[in-house]
């Protein structure tokens, strides 16, 4: 049974009571405030085989997939009228093959069948303009992601993405949700492929809420199962297949919420959360499809928001210089103006820390797309991210949580008296590519021995602290918004910094740098250091294993580039 977009007519497929003839019927629904709200049959037409699927093209036309491999186009007028048929377009070598599904994305019409073929048609053409041998077994589900791309799902749980513009018959990407010899995925995943996609992601009709809700329960059960696998043992040892699987199931959950009601703010919020959970816990899939969907939903929610200007630029946090720590001029970190690659390699790299100015002047984040609270709301306000709660990670009360960037801004940036929250050491730019386009990896990073550059975001209010610690890699800490106080110690004075003895914190000092307990840590006061206040547009180069302490003096957004 399928309902047209105007909600006034229902087309249903059925077999007659005598099982002699199959039919497609047109029904009118009666307004709920009428005494008799039973649907009224308006018109019926016979069909030559079992009806396996129905899909609306628009409010006046729909398509029917039949068990004899035929696709019918039916027009809705005063009565139903068959206006065209693509006969027997699904077939085996010697017999007809049932057409199992039909989906529409104007002007494209696509049918799938038990013969594993994907047929592409248009309304004014007598035969398919393209046939793809998509699979060696029955195709049970199909869904357009755009006019030029379509998913297919087979009876064995294999999902494939096809680019209809391609001149080859090779999928863009494929993955199995039902069979994996190493992982042993449960039968729930096959159920998602076979029933969820077919029912909830048809291109032109909206399923009943109860049907989608039931399928969402199946999706959540599958996600819970995969979640358990992701949290068994250490994260680094988890088979990447589980992360990829989590992303695919999250994609299906996203599309289900969109199918429930594409314009409902509640369902849009649920959909974008599902996207972000797939991005946070999973692996990148389908050329960044989850990121693209999340970006589009965020833009839609932003445009419909009634509170776009919740933070006026005139309300910027005012931090007087008198609140800054008093620095000793002889202990300042050296500042250099945009050194050449050669100068950096010969005079700076591995030898000493420096503050580099001029290297960020051309970043879009500093100029045409200058980062601010309002800009972050616009680009990513509805996106879910992990945050740290507590001024520093060595505190007993320190914890982690998931929240949207809007909620983070409201609860932690605009309310400085609340417990500190920090979006810290997070690969935000993989999750939100729009922000990645606003920054530029420093050329100096390419002097390393490895092409893998780890880029992390650090966004938080005044008072957030990174305790005194060291990292094994080179680092460029680049300040985009706000100011930070930074103090550095050489590796040679490690014994005076009292590192923790436990394995997890071996690279972290026990000392509260600005309020040291000198009775417990008497050698700390004699350890030499250098310091600076890092301002917007400046980046600090940190050699490997250099101890550093950082405190935000204002609302701050920094980007770190770790490289070997």
TrEMBL record:
Range of residues in the leader sequence: none
MF annotations from Gene Ontology: histone H3K36 demethylase activity; metal ion binding
Location relative to the cell: Nucleus
Cofactor: Fe(2+)
GO biological process: rhythmic process
Keywords assigned by UniProt, alphabetized: Biological rhythms, Cell cycle, Chromatin regulator, Dioxygenase, Iron, Metal-binding, Nucleus, Oxidoreductase, Transcription, Transcription regulation
Pfam families: ARM_KDM8_N, Cupin_8
A cellular component annotation (GO) from this entry: nucleus
Alphabetized PROSITE patterns for the sequence: JMJC
Gene (name only): EOG090X0844
Domain JmjC: 430-564
Organism (species): Daphnia pulicaria
The protein, known as: JmjC domain-containing protein 5
Gene3D superfamilies: Cupin, YVTN repeat-like/Quinoprotein amine dehydrogenase
């Amino acid at each position: 049974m399928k309902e047209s977009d105007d909600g006034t007519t229902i087309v249903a497929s059925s077999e007659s009571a005598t099982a002699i003839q199959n039919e497609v019927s047109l029904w009118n629904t009666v307004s709920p405030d009428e005494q008799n709200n039973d649907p009224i049959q308006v018109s019926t037409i016979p069909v030559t085989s079992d009806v396996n699927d129905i899909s609306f093209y628009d409010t006046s036309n729909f398509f029917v997939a039949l068990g004899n491999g035929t696709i019918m186009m039916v027009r809705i007028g005063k009565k139903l009228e068959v206006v065209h048929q693509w006969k027997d377009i699904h077939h085996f070598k010697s017999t007809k093959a049932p057409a199992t599904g039909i989906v529409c994305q104007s002007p494209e019409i696509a049918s799938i069948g038990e013969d594993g073929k994907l047929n592409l048609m248009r309304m004014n053409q007598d035969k398919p303009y393209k046939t793809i041998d998509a699979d060696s077994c029955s195709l049970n589900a199909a869904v357009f992601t755009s006019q030029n791309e379509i998913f297919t799902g087979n009876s064995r749980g294999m999902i494939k993405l096809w680019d209809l513009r391609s001149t080859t018959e090779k999928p863009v990407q494929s993955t199995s949700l039902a069979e994996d010899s190493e992982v042993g995925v449960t039968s729930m995943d096959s159920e998602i492929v076979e029933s969820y996609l077919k029912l909830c992601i048809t291109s032109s009709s909206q399923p009943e809420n109860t049907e989608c809700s039931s399928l969402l329960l199946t999706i959540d059960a599958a996600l819970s199962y995969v979640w358990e696998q992701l949290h068994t043992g250490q994260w680094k040892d988890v088979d990447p297949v589980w992360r990829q699987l989590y992303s695919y199931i999250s994609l299906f959950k996203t599309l289900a919420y969109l199918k429930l009601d594409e314009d409902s703010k509640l369902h849009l919020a649920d959909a974008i959360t599902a996207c972000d959970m797939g991005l946070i816990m999973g692996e990148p899939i389908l050329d960044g499809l989850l990121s693209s969907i999340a970006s589009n939903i965020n833009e839609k929610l932003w445009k419909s928001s009634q509170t776009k200007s919740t933070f006026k630029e005139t309300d910027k946090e005012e931090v007087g210089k008198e609140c800054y720590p008093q620095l000793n001029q002889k202990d300042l970190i050296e500042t250099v103006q945009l050194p050449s690659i050669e100068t950096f390699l010969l005079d700076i790299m591995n030898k000493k820390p420096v503050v580099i100015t001029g290297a960020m002047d051309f970043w879009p984040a500093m100029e045409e797309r200058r980062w601010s609270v309002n800009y972050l709301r616009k680009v990513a306000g509805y996106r879910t991210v992990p945050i740290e709660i507590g001024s520093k990670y060595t505190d007993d009360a320190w914890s982690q949580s998931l929240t949207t960037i809007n909620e983070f801004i409201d609860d932690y940036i605009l309310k400085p008296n609340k417990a500190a929250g920090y979006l810290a050491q997070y690969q935000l730019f993989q999750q939100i590519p729009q922000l990645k386009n606003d920054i530029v990896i420093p050329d100096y990073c390419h002097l390393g021995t490895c092409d893998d550059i780890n880029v992390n975001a650090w966004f938080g209010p005044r008072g957030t602290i990174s305790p005194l610690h060291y990292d094994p890699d080179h680092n460029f800490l680049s300040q985009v918004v706000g100011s930070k106080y930074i103090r550095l110690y050489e590796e040679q004075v490690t014994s005076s910094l009292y590192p923790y003895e436990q394995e997890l914190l071996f690279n972290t000092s026990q000392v509260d740098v600005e309020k040291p307990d000198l009775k417990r840590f008497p050698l700390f006061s004699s350890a030499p250091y250098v310091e600076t206040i890092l301002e917007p547009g400046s980046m600090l180069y940190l050699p490997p294993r250099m101890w550093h302490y950082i405190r935000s003096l204002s609302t701050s957004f920094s980007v770190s580039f770790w490289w070997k």
